[in-house]
Amino acid sequence: MSYQVPKFRHPQLPVNDLGYTKADYEGAISTLCAGCGHDSISGAIVRACHELSIEPHKIAKLSGIGCSSKAPTYFLGNSHGFNSVHGRMPSVVTGAALANRELLYLGVSGDGDTASIGMGQFAHVARRNLNMVYIVMNNGCYGLTKGQDSATADRGSASKKGDPSIYSAIDLCGTALQMGATFVARSFSGDKEQLVPLIKAAIAHRGFALIDVVSPCVTFNNNPQSTKSYEFVREHSEATGTIDFVPMHKEITTEYQPGYSHEVTMHDGSSIHLYKVDESLNPFDRRSAITALEDHRCSGSILTGLIYMNKDSRDLHEVLETSQRPLNQLHEADLCPGNKMLLNINASLR
Amino acid sequence: MIVKRIESVNDFVIKFANVNGTGSASANNLFAKALFRMGVPVSPKNIFPSNIQGLPTWYEVRVNDKGYLGRRGGIDIALSVNPQSMAQDIREVEPGGYFIYDSTKPLDHRLLRNDISIIGLPLTLICNEQYDDPRQRQLFKNVIYVGALAALLDMDFKVLTALVEDQFKGKKNLVLPNIHALELGHHYARAHIECPIGIRVKKSDKVGDKILLDGNTALGLGALYGGATVAAWYPITPSTSVVDAFEKYAKRVRIDPGTGRRNYAIVQAEDELSAIGMAIGASWNGARSFTATSGPGVSLMSEFLGLAYFAEIPTVLFNVQRAGPSTGMPTRTQQSDILACAYASHGDTKQVLLFPSTPKECFDFGALAFDLAERLQTPIILMSDLDLGMNDNMSEPLAWDDERKYDRGKVMTAEQLENGVEFGRYLDVDGDAICYRTYPGTHPTKGAFFTRGTSRNEYAIYTEKGEEYEANMLRLLRKWDTINEHVPAPITADCGRETDIGVLYFGTSEESSREALDYLAAEGVYMNAMRVRAFPFNQAVRQYIERHTQVFVIEQNRDAQLRTLLMAEFEFGPDKLKSVLCFDGSPISARNIRKQIKKHLKGDNVLPLHRKTALARTGESR
What we know:
Number of domains of chain B: 4
CATH superfamily of the largest domain in chain B: Pyruvate-ferredoxin oxidoreductase, PFOR, domain III
Number of strands of chain B: 23
Distance between the termini of chain B: 29 Å
Radius of gyration of chain B: 27 Å
Distance between the termini of chain A: 63 Å
Strand content of chain A: 15-25%
Largest interface: A-B, 64 and 77 residues
Oligomer: heterodimer
CATH architecture of the largest domain in chain B: 3-Layer(aba) Sandwich
Radius of gyration of chain A: 21 Å
Number of helices of chain A: 12
Helix content of chain A: 25-40%
């Protein structure tokens, strides 16, 4: 049972450029377990959207089935949401995005919803380069059915039930790269300083943006034998670097940190500043990104941060050459050719 | 055995036996179209294998001045150019009929029949003499026999040449060789065979302003005129050409004149689950969208159909049925998805079905489906089939009222929200059990809601309270009554005599049923007829069944699915409704229907008829 968040807020809550407080981006009170990584991700989404000054109703949030897919209830209460069918969120987002290209599409899914039942749709939405943000709340287990291993559970990793996973794990970042995703990042629910700029960059990216967020399941998969526990992830994460997201209209005031290596201007005029730590990775080169993922897999560490980005790709609307006016705003005059054409068609069929 | 040869004018069935992948379909189509242009009603049916090249394929043309367009049953003329199927083809010819074959090789004497006329045309020989290129030999062989047929049937040769000129307009290098091939056949037949044979064609005026069109193209046009902007699909026979047609016409008329960009989007999905997911996502977001599929696709789409039913999202699904179950006979026709669609998905569901029976109705219902989906906020499943979808059917011309406005249903606007109109996504404010929805992005702080397949209250908030769940399910049942007021009503044909017997059918069983009823009436058995055009069934359907002692339900599946649905929805006893079925993959024929009804009427397993009718029939037909 979800509850509405109480409307009372401190009167001096800071407002963004549109005059909205952070509360305007919040949702109902979470019913997930206390300490669930998913709630931290929800918080990061709220912060990113508020700080980017996006009209809350210009966002559509969509999900599949599972703990992760329940999460959209707990953020962006003024946005339309769609809790669809298990593993099928990508197709619903694709249809929605085709209908109205002007909204921001935020897909939220889990590791079961994406890497198992939804693997097909995940692969295909990536290769179509749909303009969306796809966040996986990845805890390596099926929480809502009490902790079975998922397809992202590392071989040998054991959940609270105690049996180590016997299968090879699916790396969603690697899969997304292979499928043609144009923005691939990984983060950790416990690292908001990394996650919030990544979400902002993913929103600014035009094309398919995946953020695979390791998000420990405190109830079923946070034990010492698990590679998706808070402790393990903290100890084994290696960031590609850090990024700063600078909106278009903001003056750059921060001092560049040492190691600053790239400034990338996005299509909406915003820019991303990359501070690389890992010199071997070139996040603008897919081959380099794939190699980096494989190197970290072999060394048993978790590569986080921005892994790959191609900001000049053509998204699905570009490929399909759809009109700039959203398709859901077209009327009879734009759509219906009228009886005259039928007369010609009839004549050709006699 | 001496059998009189069949003599008729503008009334026969001809079946061409070819090898698929040899270009025979276009030549056979040329033949059918020529008859149509001569003003003679035709009904061509392409009977093809699930294969691209090398297997037997047939093309059956019903020619009939009275305008019966269904299959009659029986073959009067077989034209065989495929040795693989020759034994079967010659066997099928009616006594007194004609067997025309490629006589380059002598006919196997074991196949000979003395009760039919056997006519040889040395097609391969003529081709080998005329053409060096093997592909040309293959293609023109078909055109040559059409030319020969023109002589044998006394057709107007000029109609054929004019058709070829139309077909290859502007391609002179194609027109002349085709006309030459027609002449080769024509001359050969005239010089070597006594022409015409007993079956002849003469100019008629029974076609009027009708058109020759396949149902799938009509559906594609219906979607175009109905304002669909998003089409998502996965290739499957026999529905593939629906989206092909939509795209063909959209490319012509849906290009934004200012920018050259498209006012539509078509996505070939990775599977049918994704195809319907996209259609649902687009509809949820306020665009008219559809998908087209066939049986196996419907099975895959079922879960999403349940979501769209329960979450009340408009969806349009064109189901072009084929023979199931499983892969079944992918290129053969059936009406066997009725139950799978009517109750698609787990849990308590009821889905709206539309049953078109002509290309004109495919167009009309195809466009109407979008109005219905948005007005009723539920999936609309249009039930076509392979016979209607992939064959050229003679049809009333298509028409559109230019004054017509799309019915976008109950959508709450930003102004209404701003003015404080109460919004509850599942709140029935006016008693028709259909609630207002909002499109995403409507208002900054009002009208947002969470669409879900889980139970929720009237304000779209998740709930597991039994009474709230039940209230919602009961509202959906009340909505079914509203739906019933909107879907196309059945059409009845009264036989004009007092009778207690009726027949009931839907979709492509219409033409053959009509013909069978005429046969039976000529034998003194009079029956009323009703064609059902939608599910939910109109109350008129209940009254019709109640009014008759006995109703024959004619349908093209094994399990009498429409009959089951009628019994489930109206609680009629099984004795009242008798089945007339055909499920061999061919369209049901008039002779088959007549045979089955007569068997029922003669059998003991039938309810006693109204005394007067029984007496009347005893006198007239027994």
